[in-house]
Amino acid sequence: MTASDLISFARGAPSLDIIDVAGLKAATDAALTQDPGGALGYGTAIGYPPLRKLLAERHGVAEDQVLVTNGSMQADAFLFDQLVVSGSPVVVERPTYDRTLLGLRERGADVRPVALDLDGIDTEELAALLDGGLRPTFAHIIPNFQNPAGYTLSLAKRKRLLELAEQYDFVVFEDDPYAQIRFAGEPLPTMLELDEGRGRVVYASSFSKTVAPGVRVGYIVGPKELVARVRARATNTYISPNMFAQAVVYQFCVDGGLDRSIAKVNAALAERVATLCAALAEQLPEAKFTAPEGGYFMWVELPEGVDVARLLPAAEERGVTFVKGTDFLLEGGASTMRLAYSGVRADQIAEGVGRLAEALRSLRVAAG
Hints:
Blueprint lengths: L6 E2 L12 H14 L1 H5 L8 H11 L6 E4 L2 H12 L5 E6 L3 H9 L3 E8 L2 E2 L1 H9 L6 E4 L13 H14 L2 E5 L15 H5 L5 E6 L11 E4 L2 H15 L4 H12 L2 H27 L4 E2 L7 E5 L6 H10 L2 E2 L1 E2 L11 E5 L5 H22 L1
Parallel strand pairs: 1-12, 3-4, 3-6, 6-7, 7-8
Antiparallel strand pairs: 2-9, 4-5, 8-9, 10-11, 11-14, 13-14
Helix pairs in contact: 1-10, 11-13, 12-13
Organism: Actinokineospora spheciospongiae
Cofactor: pyridoxal 5'-phosphate
GO molecular function: L-aspartate:2-oxoglutarate aminotransferase activity; pyridoxal phosphate binding
């Protein structure tokens, strides 16, 4: 079996067929026509100024509260460098993004996972920990269509989390790259909006999920003093981020390309989720899952006793892959997996689930 035959539920990226290639070509031409100097020259660490201004307007903040970076992972890294105090507690969701765990542990954080429910982090479990003496520096939260679970933090929990942050004096790091990838349900206000300028929230997002992963354009919004410190770190790291990519993204936004792209991606992913749910129900009926209302990911629990560390190589032998749930946890999760449906065409999904089912059957046969 060749690499081209592999059906991958592993990568959290849109497949090429739902990326607006023509729109990005037009945006590139517009960027080079209207502002060749800005697009092709060195800038400063604040990012491409027109894009920074646009983002400030969209979030209702001053421009000096925004910094545009080379993707949101770099924004996360800069923020972790400023916020993590080695040996001090940091709250994360359980499970959470594997790169978040890696970045925090590399910086010496005392990572404290709190259970993730269908409506987001268990705020009452967090409240009990805080009442018992936990004093985190910050809580890292992926509020919309969480990676890896696909769950969304409810409005009531968003408000409760902000109350706890105020009461116990910690920051909420709102890591929100999936907010606009919604194909069911109603949008919710960000915690940045709900905070109403009190400075309890640092917000990060990205255009990788709404435009294309290769543009590598992300940004942060936060208190001016914190953003200034991040800007100094960015200046010392690269002087200027990728101004060309940021200029293209800006033109894509102002010309309506972003809205068209989001509509196209959302329609495609709604179809893929429906197809994936149907395929799992038919071919892996023992699997437990909740259909997400947006985003790229679905969390799947297999029966107790299934070891995904053994299932993964068996699946890859049959031409399908996924990410083990254990990658997103400090402990536990041996029978869980994350399925990313964003990069798999709808006509591949049933075949991919069929291969997963065959791999699972092979483990059971081998076990006798």
